[in-house]
Amino acid sequence: MLQLTNIDKTYRTSSVETLALNNINLNVKKGEFISVMGPSGCGKSTLLNIMGLLDEPTGGEISIDGSRVANYHDKELARLRNEKLGFIFQSFHLINDLSVLDNVEIPLLYRKTSAKVRRELAQEALEKVGLSNRMKHFPKQLSGGQKQRVAIARAIVGRPEIILADEPTGNLDSVMGNEILDILQKLNDDGATIVMVTHDDAMAQRTHRLVRLFDGTQVL
Fold first, then answer.
1. What single string gives the DSSP state of each residue in 9-38?
2. Any residues with CB less than 8 A from the CB of 144 and at least 6 apart, and which?
3. What positions belong to coiled-coil segments (predicted)?
4. What is the DSSP letter of 139?
5. 1: closest CA among 163, 155, 156?
């Protein structure tokens, strides 16, 4: 479904060259729930950004459903990100001036989905994460766990096949963290493919497979 072949990523400035990823090979199969672990600065978020087509590798190939991403134009990449991928961030990235419902609708605006359908899909997504009673609230009125639920609802509102989660429980206590992972596991049970970056061994043990990175290199 999502395949990385010999992926390298190097960041360059006028005086410094930093190798962030070195020869990463990873095949994510449909329906898998994979966790990515490693010390800070080892390349976990860089890997997730490349998988999500938010960043380009310096070398290697990315394929989604057998199609090489390098062959896609910018508009095709944007469409692919919007339709096939859902993103969950540690810092939530909610818009404080918008209601919970309006925040969840945002990805559908880029698809030019009608207001009626946007509203229906957003309500459905919020029901899945247990926040149907908070639709009219604003982010500042929510707890950290509730904000992350909104972020998950926003990620799944377009019914993506692949969900990429960067430390989704990193800002939460253990109780809330487990509740968020319960939601992710339910989404996985319903067919979503998930790749999650985490520092938490207990969370990683609840996923199907663990990928470890160290200094940008995959540990086998």
1. EEEE-SS-EEEEEEEEEEEEPTT-EEEEE-
2. 171, 172, 176
3. none
4. G
5. 163
Tell me if the domain spanning 31-39+74-219 has CATH number 3.40.50.300: yes
Q: Which of 163, 217, 220 is nearest to 7 (CA)?
A: 217
Map 37-88 to HEC letters.
ECCCCCCHHHHHHHHCCCCCCCEEEEEECCEEHHHCCHHHHHHHHHHHEEEE
What would the pLDDT profile of 103-150 be if each residue is shown by its tens digit? 999 999 888 889 999 999 999 999 999 999 999 999 999 999 999 999
Q: Classify residue 48 by burial, with Cβ atoms within 10 Å: 0-12, 13-18, 19+.
A: buried
Single pTM value for the model: 0.92
Tokens of 185: 């596991």
**Structure token digits, residue 98:** 């918008």
DSSP state for residue 167 in the 8-state scheme? S
